[in-house]
Write a structure and sequence with these properties.
The chain has ten helices and 14 strands. Strands 1, 2, 3, 4, 7, 8 and 14 form a seven-stranded mixed sheet that branches. A three-stranded parallel sheet has the order 9-10-13. The chain has a two-stranded antiparallel sheet with strand order 5-6. A hairpin with a 4-residue loop joins β11 and β12. The chain is α/β, with parallel strands linked by helices. It binds 2-acetamido-2-deoxy-beta-D-glucopyranose. 2-acetamido-2-deoxy-beta-D-glucopyranose (NAG) binds next to loops. 2-acetamido-2-deoxy-beta-D-glucopyranose binds next to loops. Belongs to the AIM6 family.
């Protein structure tokens, strides 16, 4: 290399280093303001806790398995979470099985209190309000309800009774979706749905309540389930692998057979006609191409909620 060339290279290199990686315009005074506004109350607003989070029709599968249950789902925009609850001496504990239970992990500590806190933040009291608000957890979409699936693992009647009682802090503030006189549905920030061992008889026949029942998606069209309306089951679910079957993997992509697609289509469209959102659990999380093909197909067919284990991937998918 001749001297002039190497000088040129050195000069270019220095220039490169001196330049910021990503240029943001404006004077240094403006830059200073942009950096320091967070210290001033004028640059916060009361309901900014979930600012910028776009809600997505995704159910946080086994939500309590996450490092931070509920909040992780919320931060990814999931509109649905799920707690498995176990009743011991009047307290509801949260976990997948008995050996995962601890004194600290309760329905109250992991779900009721955090959800109440977020809904309170979204409904601040101030002199600017001309009427009480009933905002949901998402600042970008205040009328989006949060579905809280409560999966009773211990004996249904006793456990669900305890679930109903545990909802009191949310009920007291008027934050639950309610049914009155068996006909008037008022959507609130939180919609509770009993699943697992929840007895149908504690929900279906009750005309005044603030909890709902996870309908049986695969058998919704059968005569014995003719009475299940969207006022009883806003959502109906079934296991994908048992209702539709396993996906087969082609050379480059996963494949649903025509028969599987027909099954899926008829289940989703039947639910839809009744105003019920369809949800499949036990959907493949792996391989990724199978998961993604299924997500795409389910959305194309009009499924209500996608079931996701990897919430960040789901948030990126939308
Ligand atoms: C409420 O409506 C459901 C669905 O039609 C019915 O099964 C139930 O018996 C009704 N309950 C009351 C109290 O009328």
């Amino acid at each position: 290399m001749v001297l002039s060339q190497s000088l040129l290279v050195a000069a270019a290199f220095t220039l490169f280093l001196a330049y910021p990686a990503k240029a943001v315009g404006g004077s240094s005074e403006l830059q200073n303001i942009l950096k320091n506004t967070h210290k001033s109350p004028a640059y916060n607003y009361p309901t900014d806790f979930t600012r910028g989070i776009v809600p997505i029709p995704v159910h946080s599968h086994n939500d309590y398995w996450r490092d931070v249950p509920f909040y992780t789902a919320l931060s990814n925009g999931c509109i649905s979470v799920e707690a498995d609850v176990w009743l011991y001496d009047g307290t509801l504990y949260v976990g997948h099985d008995e050996s995962s239970l601890t004194e600290e992990r309760t329905f109250e500590s992991l779900y009721i209190n955090p959800i109440l806190d977020v809904v309170e933040r979204q409904n601040p009291k101030s002199r600017f309000l001309t009427a009480p608000t009933n905002n949901g957890v998402f600042d970008t979409s205040t009328d989006q309800t949060l579905y809280l699936f409560v999966d009773s693992k211990t004996s249904g009647p006793e456990t669900f009774e305890a679930v109903i009682a545990a909802l009191e802090p949310l009920r007291e503030k008027g934050y639950l979706t309610t049914l009155k006189n068996n006909k008037t549905l008022t959507e609130g920030p939180v919609t509770v749905i009993g699943t697992g061992n929840t007895p149908y008889d504690m929900v279906g026949p009750v005309g005044d309540r603030d909890y709902f029942y996870d309908g049986p998606l695969a058998t919704l069209s059968e005569a014995e389930n003719a009475g299940i309306t969207s006022l009883i089951s806003p959502i109906a679910s079934t296991s994908f692998s048992s209702a539709v079957g396993e996906l087969s993997l082609g050379d480059s992509q996963a494949v649903l057979s025509d028969e599987q697609l027909d099954t899926l289509r008829s289940q989703i469209s039947f639910a839809k006609e009744k105003g019920i959102l369809a949800r499949y659990w036990d959907t493949p999380a792996y391989p990724i191409r199978a998961r993604n093909l299924l997500w795409m197909t389910l959305l194309d067919e009009g499924v209500g909620l996608l079931n996701a284990d990897d919430l960040a991937a789901a948030a990126e998918y939308f």
